[in-house]
Design goal:
Strand order of the largest sheet: 1-2-3
Number of domains: 2
CATH architecture of the largest domain: 2-Layer Sandwich
Distance between the termini: 39 Å
CATH topology of the largest domain: GMP Synthetase, Chain A, domain 3
Pfam family, one: OsmC
Organism: Pedobacter puniceum
Protein name: OsmC family peroxiredoxin
Number of strands: 6
Number of helices: 4
Radius of gyration: 18 Å
Shape: elongated
Largest sheet: 3 strands, antiparallel
Structural class: alpha+beta
GO biological process, one term: response to oxidative stress
Strand content: 25-35%
InterPro entries: KH_dom-like_a/b, OsmC/Ohr_fam, OsmC/Ohrsf, OsmC_Ohr_Peroxiredoxin, Peroxiredoxin_OsmC
Oligomer: single chain
Helix content: 25-40%
CATH superfamily of the largest domain: K homology (KH) domain
């Protein structure tokens, strides 16, 4: 399978006083605000690190779902929160916090599949940084 996705960004002004926007081909993001405040402070809008976190959480969780299904289980729920750490001009750490509810799976198999998903997810492979994984398997009643 081969495909291309695209997004665009526009910026006007200096790095600190300027502002811009980001749009995606799907229009999920359509001129979403981007500024110094949205990236380095608490401004309204988005930023590259938040978008990387969203992309990584989505890619990893979908990859894990495929692996769990291939192992013969059906996930009831998978929740992933990706924390992207920016320090001294670099993204130096991503922590994936995973919680899953999967009938019949052992904690050991869940952790093994999650680790494999972390390693083979296309976004994980793209990122040149340390990636931590924290898993929680929920007990089903």
């Amino acid at each position: 399978m081969k495909f291309t996705r695209k997004a665009s960004a526009n910026w006007r002004g200096t790095g600190k006083e300027g502002s811009g926007n980001i749009s995606t081909e799907s229009t999920v993001l359509n001129n979403a605000q981007l500024s110094y405040k949205t990236r380095f402070e608490d401004g309204i809008g988005t930023n590259p690190e938040e978008l990387i976190a969203a992309a990584h959480a989505g890619c990893f969780t979908m990859q894990l779902s495929f692996l769990i299904s291939e192992a013969g289980f059906t996930p009831e729920n998978l929740d992933t929160v990706a924390h992207v750490q920016f320090e001294d001009g670099s993204i130096n750490l991503i922590t994936l916090e995973l919680s899953g509810a999967i009938p019949g799976i052992s904690n050991e198999e869940f952790e093994q599949l999650a680790q494999k998903a972390k390693e083979i997810c296309p976004i994980s492979k793209l990122l040149d940084t340390e990636i931590h994984l924290v898993t929680t398997l929920q007990e089903l009643s």
